[in-house]
Write a structure and sequence with these properties.
The protein is α+β, with helices and mostly antiparallel strands. α1 packs across α4 and α2 packs across α4.
Length: 285
């Protein structure tokens, strides 16, 4: 019995990749179950011998042009099918087929990749709306905004949608209609959040900006350019409904810094108390 054949049998039979030291351990352990002279001889094998024979087996499979190959992975050696045959092999394991990521899932993944480590609350804040800790579902395409309408003429540009359908029932959102209107002549943006919840919960809206935010008069946040090269923008809200907080986010990515500058800022408008609904009107001018 050749050492090379035994190594091949071990790698083939293993349900996980095998490290050379694990193969050596199996060769030595076989002596306990047998008085065979060949087993005792193989038990003296060293790791470098195993590695050399694994490399030979790898070449053997390549030269034989088999549908499988021997590969060295991070956690050991394994016999696997070639990627060329993946289309057919996957049909044997339908439950293992990779799921396509939805838009919300990709958005969340991008946030995690850019800002990690990050908490779920931070993810919700970046995405724009947080309601009782329930996020948009990424597992079912039925969770998406509905009743989307867009207008664009000489006087206005606007977008409206029903956000309630973008969340699962557990979020407890009975109604959430969002409307954004640009009034061209006045250079003004009007944002309306008309919502009804099934139970009282904290509500927060997030605005991202390269301008520096500061508290203005009651019900107003001033957004200023760092170099003061332009006029301030005012974000107006009802102070009886929401309170603003600001967060500075230092940008480390060179491409983002080139476009947005050194920092971005998060303006978070949070309800003054848990609420079951209302109509928030926010003006940017």
């Amino acid at each position: 019995m050749l050492l090379k054949e035994v190594i091949e049998a071990l790698v083939f039979a293993s349900q996980k990749p095998l490290l050379p030291k694990e193969i050596v351990a199996a060769l030595r352990a076989a002596v306990d179950d047998s008085d065979d002279e060949a087993a005792r001889a193989l038990a003296k094998t060293k790791e470098p011998e195993v590695v050399a024979l694994l490399q030979e087996l790898k070449i053997d499979y390549i030269q034989a042009n088999r549908a499988f190959q021997l590969t060295e992975q991070v956690n050991g050696w394994a016999v696997v099918t070639k990627p060329d045959y993946g289309l057919w092999v996957r049909q044997l394991y339908p439950e293992s087929k990779p799921a396509r990521l939805s838009g919300p899932a990709l958005e969340t993944l991008a946030i995690v990749a850019y800002r990690q480590p990050i908490t779920r609350a931070d993810i919700e804040a970046v995405r724009g709306v947080a309601v009782d800790g329930v996020m948009q579902s990424s597992a079912d395409h039925k969770y998406r905004a509905s009743n989307i309408a867009y207008v664009n003429d000489d006087a206005h540009a606007g977008l409206s949608m029903n956000l309630a359908t973008a969340y699962p029932g557990a979020a407890g959102i009975a109604r959430w209609n969002r409307s954004v209107i640009l009034e061209r002549a006045a250079s003004r943006i009007l944002l309306t959040e008309d919502f009804q919840l099934q139970r009282k919960a904290p509500v927060a809206l997030t605005f991202m900006t390269p301008r520096i935010p500061s508290q203005g008069a009651p019900g107003s946040v001033l957004l200023s350019l760092a170099d003061k090269s332009g006029a301030d923008v005012s974000l107006k809200y009802d102070p009886s409904l929401a309170v603003p907080t600001f967060e500075k986010i230092a940008l480390k990515d060179d491409d983002l810094r080139r476009i947005w500058g050194e920092n971005l800022y998060r303006v978070l408008l949070t309800s003054t108390a848990p609420t079951s609904g209302g109509m928030w009107k926010i003006e940017m001018i």
